[in-house]
Amino acid sequence: MIEIRQRIAVIAVCAVAIVIALTVGMGMGIGKELNIGMESDFETVDSTDATLDPSVDTGSVTAPSSQTTSDTTQPQVTTPEASETEAVTQLTAGETTTQPSGAEPDLPDPQPPTDATARICLGGDTSIDTEFADAAYKWGINYPWKEVIEIFSSADISVVNLETCVSNRGESEKREGYGFRTPPDMLEGFVNAGIDLVNLANNHTRDFGYDALLDTFAHLGEYGIGYFGAGNDITEAQGLAIKEVNGIKIGFTGCNYVWLADDCAADVDHAGVNMVYGISDERTQAYLAKVREYDSQCDVLITFMHCGTEEVFDVNSYQERLSRALIDNGADIVVGAHPHTLQPIEFYNGKPIFYSIGNLIFWHIDDDLDGLTCIFDITVDKNGFSSLKVYPLFIKNYKVYLLDKEEDSQRYYQIIELMNSLCNPYGIAFDDDGNMTEYVLQPEPEDTAMAEPAVTTVPQGELGQG
């Protein structure tokens, strides 16, 4: 009996051992499956659901205790929303990176592609005052801008010449009808239109006095619109506004040559406009020195120049001298304003000078003189100017109209022809879509009235059109 009981006990012990071994083996198998499930879930975690904190050891993340899996359970992959996709893209671009604990970052600094470009849209003289403001109050804050919002908003940087103060204070310091003051709430339309920067180096920023000038700085700041060409002192007025796009540093600065009272010019302890005078003038030379300095701080330097004769298409001698001096001292692109008309574009030492980009949203005298205008859509790369397209516009009914070459063909082609007549002498032409192309200058025909006919053996056609 005793032997039988001993044998039964041994058998029982062996059975228990077998059960324990089987249980442990199954447990290890389940643990492996859990590890696979947790690893898959971790790899597909939505980046917007996890707080990326560099102080947290992201290598020790564990699955929630409530998570369970089975042989038939597959890890679920959630398709991110649009905003989540953007967050992932930002991480990929290197703007925000979090490394697992113990891992050394081994990512190269993000570099722009070698063919990186930026689009800059330029608009001319702009002032939403008097009748323009009344129309905006009546028809909506975007009314003056409505037809050009898409163009300005799609650009990387959009800039206009703000030829007005922005204030509700002050009395006009100009003769009747020539003082411009834009109500501050009109800046909402600028923002909605996609305007990023404004040039203040002009002869109307001080139209309603010193306090209105200070208001202009303050209100632009409130609406997040950058400015250049005027400031609280001479350093700010001569300052450089820089924006980086696709790795390209683009700088903006501005100067005014049109006469203003002495107290309108910025000084060491006085707010005002960045004034320049004759090329040899001490103040002008100081600004040209700044331009040389700024050339080394950005890839593309764009200088606004308020200068020229009003209501004419011709370039005067000082416009040419000042703009070329700006190029000689480091500017890559010179943009002119003040004539209120379109004027020629010239390439000087391989760099473009836009002598006048005309009006944008501005009171004008003659529909066919200063009511015909353009948006100038410039593409730049790290080497400077790359290409240009113009969008013909027409100012009427206190707004600017974007002209269609089919529906508004007469005015559309009137502007294209105007640009060609202005720019052809400088070797520039525009096609029917507004794209700038090269214009081959033709030699002047010789006066052969008193000369004997020349004899040549050159085949017909190789001499061009003469």
Characterise this structure.
This is CapA family protein. By secondary structure, the chain is α/β, with parallel strands linked by helices. It has two domains: 42 residues; 321 residues, Purple Acid Phosphatase, chain A, domain 2, CATH 3.60.21. Helices cover 29% and strands 21% of the residues. The chain is built from ten helices and 20 strands. The strands form five sheets. Strands 1, 2, 5, 6, 15, 16, 17 and 18 form an eight-stranded mixed beta sheet that branches. The N terminus and C terminus are likely disordered.
Q: How is this fold's topology laid out?
A:
Elements lengths: L1 H42 L38 H12 L24 E9 L3 H10 L9 H6 L2 E6 L2 E2 L14 E2 L4 H7 L3 E3 L10 H13 L3 E3 L1 E2 L2 H4 L3 E5 L2 E9 L15 E2 L8 H14 L4 E7 L10 H12 L4 E5 L7 E4 L2 E4 L4 E3 L10 E10 L2 E13 L2 E4 L6 H15 L4 E3 L5 E3 L28
Parallel strand pairs: 1-2, 1-15, 2-5, 3-4, 5-6, 9-11, 11-12, 12-14
Antiparallel strand pairs: 1-16, 7-10, 8-9, 13-14, 16-17, 17-18, 19-20
Keywords:
single chain; about 475 residues; alpha/beta; Purple Acid Phosphatase, chain A, domain 2; 2 domains; eight-stranded mixed sheet; six-stranded mixed sheet; about 30% helix; about 20% strand; disordered N terminus; disordered C terminus; transmembrane helix; CapA family protein
CATH fold-level assignment of the largest domain: Purple Acid Phosphatase, chain A, domain 2
What top-tier CATH class of the largest domain fits best? Alpha Beta
CATH architecture of the largest domain: 4-Layer Sandwich
Q: What's the number of helices?
A: 10
The count of β-strands is 20
Query: How many separate structural domains?
Result: 2
| Overall radius of gyration | 34 Å
Distance between the termini: 133 Å
Average per-residue pLDDT, rounded, comes to 79
Reading the helices and strands in chain order gives: HHEHHEEEHEHEEHEEEHEHEEEEEEEHEE
- Based on Cα principal axes, name the global outline: globular
Helix proportion: 25-40%
Main sheet specs: 8 strands, mixed
Low-confidence stretches: 1-5, 18-108, 448-466
Instruction: Please identify the structural class as seen in this structure.
Output: alpha/beta
Looking at CATH, the homologous superfamily of the largest domain is Metallo-dependent phosphatases
What share of the residues does DSSP label as strand, in percent? 15-25%
Family: Belongs to the CapA family.
Region (Disordered): 48-121
Biased composition (Polar residues): 86-101
Biased composition (Low complexity): 62-80
